[in-house]
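Example (one chain per record):
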Amino acid sequence: MRSKVVSFDLNTGKAPIADASPLKRPLSGLKEIFYDQEAVKSILAKQDPMVYEFYDLHMPEREGDLAFGTSMVYPGKVGDEYYMTKGHFHTLIDTAEVYYCLKGYGMMMMESPEGEIEYQEMRPGQAVYVPGRYAHRSINLSDTETLITFFVFRADAGHNYGTIEEKGFRKLVVASNNGYALIDNPHWVG
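Predicted structure:
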Protein backbone atom coordinates (compact mmCIF):
# COMPACT_ATOMS: atom_id res chain seq x y z
CA MET A 1 0.00 0.00 0.00
CA ARG A 2 1.11 3.52 -0.73
CA SER A 3 0.54 6.64 1.33
CA LYS A 4 -2.96 8.07 1.50
CA VAL A 5 -4.44 11.46 2.28
CA VAL A 6 -8.01 11.73 3.57
CA SER A 7 -9.76 15.01 4.28
CA PHE A 8 -12.15 15.31 7.21
CA ASP A 9 -14.53 18.16 7.90
CA LEU A 10 -13.57 19.14 11.44
CA ASN A 11 -17.05 20.58 12.12
CA THR A 12 -18.99 17.47 11.08
CA GLY A 13 -16.40 14.67 11.26
CA LYS A 14 -17.43 13.52 7.80
CA ALA A 15 -15.09 12.46 5.00
CA PRO A 16 -15.79 12.54 1.26
CA ILE A 17 -17.69 9.45 0.12
CA ALA A 18 -14.86 8.69 -2.35
CA ASP A 19 -12.54 8.09 0.63
CA ALA A 20 -14.93 6.53 3.11
CA SER A 21 -18.29 4.87 3.54
CA PRO A 22 -20.51 6.14 6.34
CA LEU A 23 -21.95 3.41 8.55
CA LYS A 24 -25.14 4.65 10.15
CA ARG A 25 -26.66 3.37 13.38
CA PRO A 26 -30.27 4.47 14.00
CA LEU A 27 -32.08 3.66 17.23
CA SER A 28 -33.93 0.74 15.61
CA GLY A 29 -30.59 -1.03 15.14
CA LEU A 30 -29.44 -0.33 18.70
CA LYS A 31 -32.60 -0.74 20.75
CA GLU A 32 -31.24 -3.67 22.79
CA ILE A 33 -28.30 -1.67 24.22
CA PHE A 34 -30.56 0.77 26.10
CA TYR A 35 -31.96 -0.40 29.42
CA ASP A 36 -35.27 1.54 29.31
CA GLN A 37 -37.12 -0.53 26.73
CA GLU A 38 -40.37 1.38 27.27
CA ALA A 39 -38.59 4.61 26.28
CA VAL A 40 -37.16 2.85 23.20
CA LYS A 41 -40.64 1.72 22.12
CA SER A 42 -42.10 5.17 22.73
CA ILE A 43 -39.43 6.91 20.62
CA LEU A 44 -39.60 4.36 17.80
CA ALA A 45 -43.40 4.72 17.65
CA LYS A 46 -42.84 8.32 16.49
CA GLN A 47 -39.45 8.29 14.72
CA ASP A 48 -36.18 6.40 14.22
CA PRO A 49 -33.47 8.91 15.17
CA MET A 50 -29.84 8.51 14.15
CA VAL A 51 -27.80 7.71 17.26
CA TYR A 52 -24.34 7.59 15.68
CA GLU A 53 -22.39 7.06 12.50
CA PHE A 54 -18.77 6.50 11.63
CA TYR A 55 -16.61 6.53 8.56
CA ASP A 56 -14.83 3.36 7.44
CA LEU A 57 -11.79 4.28 5.37
CA HIS A 58 -11.34 0.85 3.77
CA MET A 59 -7.80 0.31 5.00
CA PRO A 60 -6.24 -3.11 4.37
CA GLU A 61 -6.80 -5.42 7.32
CA ARG A 62 -3.17 -6.49 7.48
CA GLU A 63 -0.72 -6.81 10.34
CA GLY A 64 1.36 -3.66 10.53
CA ASP A 65 -1.29 -1.38 8.99
CA LEU A 66 -3.48 1.06 10.91
CA ALA A 67 -7.21 1.61 10.56
CA PHE A 68 -8.51 5.10 11.27
CA GLY A 69 -11.60 7.22 10.85
CA THR A 70 -14.15 9.39 12.56
CA SER A 71 -17.17 8.71 14.72
CA MET A 72 -20.11 11.02 15.37
CA VAL A 73 -22.42 10.35 18.34
CA TYR A 74 -25.41 12.66 18.15
CA PRO A 75 -26.96 14.41 21.16
CA GLY A 76 -29.95 12.66 22.65
CA LYS A 77 -31.20 10.30 25.32
CA VAL A 78 -33.32 7.18 25.60
CA GLY A 79 -35.09 7.69 28.90
CA ASP A 80 -32.29 9.14 31.02
CA GLU A 81 -29.49 7.21 29.25
CA TYR A 82 -27.29 9.18 26.85
CA TYR A 83 -26.83 8.22 23.20
CA MET A 84 -23.80 5.97 22.77
CA THR A 85 -22.06 3.62 20.40
CA LYS A 86 -22.75 -0.10 20.51
CA GLY A 87 -19.36 -0.86 22.06
CA HIS A 88 -16.95 -3.66 21.24
CA PHE A 89 -13.90 -5.66 22.11
CA HIS A 90 -11.33 -6.21 19.39
CA THR A 91 -11.15 -9.73 17.97
CA LEU A 92 -7.43 -9.59 18.69
CA ILE A 93 -8.28 -8.73 22.27
CA ASP A 94 -4.90 -7.25 23.24
CA THR A 95 -5.35 -4.44 20.69
CA ALA A 96 -5.35 -0.90 22.04
CA GLU A 97 -7.09 2.04 20.37
CA VAL A 98 -6.78 5.82 20.55
CA TYR A 99 -9.69 8.27 20.30
CA TYR A 100 -9.00 11.97 19.79
CA CYS A 101 -11.90 14.33 20.53
CA LEU A 102 -12.42 16.88 17.76
CA LYS A 103 -15.69 18.38 18.97
CA GLY A 104 -18.29 18.01 21.70
CA TYR A 105 -18.26 16.57 25.20
CA GLY A 106 -18.42 12.90 25.96
CA MET A 107 -17.02 9.88 27.68
CA MET A 108 -15.20 6.70 26.80
CA MET A 109 -16.58 3.81 28.86
CA MET A 110 -14.18 0.85 29.13
CA GLU A 111 -14.50 -2.59 30.70
CA SER A 112 -12.15 -5.59 30.80
CA PRO A 113 -13.39 -9.20 30.66
CA GLU A 114 -12.40 -9.46 34.34
CA GLY A 115 -14.77 -6.62 35.26
CA GLU A 116 -12.33 -3.74 35.65
CA ILE A 117 -14.14 -0.53 34.69
CA GLU A 118 -12.60 2.74 33.58
CA TYR A 119 -14.14 5.85 32.11
CA GLN A 120 -12.61 9.02 30.79
CA GLU A 121 -14.32 12.25 29.83
CA MET A 122 -13.45 13.66 26.42
CA ARG A 123 -13.34 17.28 25.32
CA PRO A 124 -11.87 18.86 22.17
CA GLY A 125 -8.11 18.45 22.00
CA GLN A 126 -8.00 15.47 24.37
CA ALA A 127 -7.03 11.93 23.40
CA VAL A 128 -8.15 8.82 25.26
CA TYR A 129 -5.97 5.72 25.14
CA VAL A 130 -8.09 2.55 25.36
CA PRO A 131 -5.85 -0.29 26.60
CA GLY A 132 -5.92 -3.72 25.01
CA ARG A 133 -8.39 -6.18 26.57
CA TYR A 134 -10.97 -3.44 27.18
CA ALA A 135 -14.36 -3.23 25.53
CA HIS A 136 -15.15 0.39 24.84
CA ARG A 137 -17.98 2.68 23.80
CA SER A 138 -18.30 6.41 23.20
CA ILE A 139 -21.07 8.27 25.02
CA ASN A 140 -22.26 11.78 24.15
CA LEU A 141 -22.78 13.78 27.37
CA SER A 142 -23.98 16.94 25.61
CA ASP A 143 -27.65 17.76 25.07
CA THR A 144 -26.88 20.01 22.10
CA GLU A 145 -23.60 19.14 20.39
CA THR A 146 -22.42 16.11 18.41
CA LEU A 147 -19.46 14.20 19.90
CA ILE A 148 -16.90 13.85 17.10
CA THR A 149 -13.83 11.68 17.58
CA PHE A 150 -10.97 10.51 15.39
CA PHE A 151 -9.86 6.93 16.08
CA VAL A 152 -6.91 4.73 15.15
CA PHE A 153 -6.14 1.07 15.86
CA ARG A 154 -4.34 -1.96 14.44
CA ALA A 155 -5.99 -2.67 11.08
CA ASP A 156 -6.21 -6.45 11.51
CA ALA A 157 -7.67 -6.24 15.04
CA GLY A 158 -11.27 -6.92 14.02
CA HIS A 159 -14.37 -6.14 16.08
CA ASN A 160 -16.20 -8.39 18.51
CA TYR A 161 -19.66 -6.87 19.09
CA GLY A 162 -21.22 -10.17 20.18
CA THR A 163 -19.93 -10.21 23.75
CA ILE A 164 -21.39 -6.77 24.46
CA GLU A 165 -24.66 -7.66 22.70
CA GLU A 166 -25.00 -10.74 24.92
CA LYS A 167 -23.81 -9.35 28.26
CA GLY A 168 -23.90 -5.55 28.05
CA PHE A 169 -21.61 -3.29 30.05
CA ARG A 170 -21.70 -3.54 33.85
CA LYS A 171 -22.34 0.19 34.21
CA LEU A 172 -24.63 2.68 32.49
CA VAL A 173 -24.20 6.43 32.14
CA VAL A 174 -27.38 8.38 32.86
CA ALA A 175 -28.35 12.02 33.26
CA SER A 176 -28.47 13.33 36.82
CA ASN A 177 -28.84 16.67 38.59
CA ASN A 178 -25.03 16.96 38.63
CA GLY A 179 -24.63 16.20 34.90
CA TYR A 180 -24.26 12.42 34.76
CA ALA A 181 -24.04 9.39 37.01
CA LEU A 182 -22.74 5.85 36.62
CA ILE A 183 -25.24 3.25 37.76
CA ASP A 184 -25.31 -0.55 37.75
CA ASN A 185 -26.81 -2.02 34.59
CA PRO A 186 -29.89 -3.99 35.69
CA HIS A 187 -29.71 -6.04 32.46
CA TRP A 188 -26.02 -7.00 32.72
CA VAL A 189 -25.49 -10.75 32.34
CA GLY A 190 -22.66 -12.01 34.57
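Caption: The chain is about 10% helix and 40% strand.
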